[in-house]
Specification:
Length: 235
């Protein structure tokens, strides 16, 4: 079976649930669109590990989290560039030829020109999930389970992505993670950033907040501004 046929089959399989339980549809839409329930939860775990001083691994874990954040930034930018340069792929909910029943009306006018492949959600959150796993096994598996069930699957159900979009995003994230934790110069940069955080925390934490906010928000506000500039009337 061709890859796109597999995509259509899996999308259609989940789409059979649409309209059966309207409250469920709106709940799925809520968790898919609400950044507090997506990035907010994952970032809370991230910062919990960052400030956890109940063991002797706090400094070691902070180094891993810095690498994770660097990897997340590189992976997210890579995914956005790929979505802008690869052949355009419409999102399932916008395509008429697959007979997709939209569970909840979606208006993403600001990114209508951006291809659905690969999924930036999959890229970003697999990086954060793995970074948490590197520091804390229990929280790591909990975060990865949450990411799959409450962040990635809803995007397929709502027609925001095909399964292959998600897999493509995961692939980008895994590749970037592999090199981030293997390359020696990345470790050196992490050590420099860690030293800076201890020497000048009044500068480090505001910068970290802005970077973390944009990452977990998936550059949504930034892309909305760009989208408005390109389509000032929302058309």
């Amino acid at each position: 079976m061709p890859p796109f046929e597999i995509d259509k089959f899996l999308t259609g399989l989940l789409n059979k649930l649409a309209y059966l339980y309207p409250k469920f549809d709106h709940f799925v839409y809520l968790i898919a669109e609400n950044n507090l329930l997506k990035g907010g939860i994952i970032l809370t775990l991230f910062y919990f590990i960052w400030f956890d001083n109940t063991n002797n691994k706090m400094i070691l874990n902070r180094g891993k989290l810095i690498i994770t954040m660097m990897a997340a930034f590189v992976a997210e930018v890579t995914t956005i560039l790929l979505s802008l340069t690869l052949p355009y792929r419409a999102r399932p909910y916008t395509q008429q030829d697959i007979n997709f029943n939209i569970p909840v009306e979606i208006d993403h006018w600001w990114n209508k020109d951006i291809s659905s492949f690969p999924s930036d959600h999959a890229t970003l959150f697999i990086v954060f999930g793995y970074g948490i796993l590197k520091c804390n096994q229990k929280l790591g598996w909990l975060s990865l389970s949450y990411i799959i069930l409450f962040i990635l699957l809803p995007r397929i159900y709502l027609g925001l992505h095909y399964t292959s979009d998600i897999m493509g995003g995961l692939f980008v994230g895994v590749i970037v993670l592999f090199f981030a934790f293997k390359l020696e110069f990345i470790q050196k940069i992490s050590n420099m950033v860690l030293a800076f955080s201890e020497k000048r925390p009044y500068l480090f934490y505001p910068i970290m907040f802005l970077i973390a906010y944009q990452l977990v928000d998936l550059f949504t506000e930034s892309r909305e501004i760009i989208g408005y500039i390109r389509h000032p009337l929302g058309k």
